[in-house]
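Researcher: I'm preparing a figure for a lab meeting and need a structural model of a single chain. I don't have an experimental structure, so a prediction will have to do for now. The sequence is pasted below. Please return the structure as tokens so I can convert it later.
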Amino acid sequence: GFRLGTSGTATSRDLEAAEESDNSLPDEEGPPEIVDGEAREGDVKFIDVQNAAACGSAELVPNLAEGEQALREALPLAEVLDEVALDFVAPLIALFGNGWTRCFYSRNWLCRVAALTHLSATMGLRLEELTEADGQNGNRRKAGPATSPHALGELLDGAMRAVHEGLGDQNVRVYAEACLSVTAVVPAFCGTVDGRLLVAHLAPLLRQLCARMGDSKE
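Model: Understood. Here is the structure written out token by token.
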């Protein structure tokens, strides 16, 4: 698929030295330590997916303030969207805004991470707003994705598209953030949308993850 600028460059004050995409994992040395239901080994964190999903992965999801701050700090680093790509990114702009989309397709990997962090932090609120709008006798809000009669499906499509593209990012930090976004996006839609629709979205993500995990460079 068409993906804008995935060769990010680190220019933030947060970096003392340039960190390139290191697609390698540390060698395993014995079984990981189990801490609070999670396996830890060095800097690698293994999540109990079943329990995390059951709990809504609340401990993994950034709060709204963190998401807003991450996006706000990344915006000055994000490039203006290329006019030739506006049609391609239009659905994401309609859902998440121009600023978010600029960050998500920025050449700077820090901006892409911030966009995914913001997606995770705001997903619950977006779904809550849609639910409230649907409950008001069909009276939808004047602004935002809730104006669409297929708002829930559009939000699911946009969120899963972002996660899917994030999982395909060659920068390991962006990839890792996309993996965390799965734990925020998927549980949020469980019980909200038709299970078959959710499975249809999950199938390509699982194939993508399996393929990438089987890559000897990962």
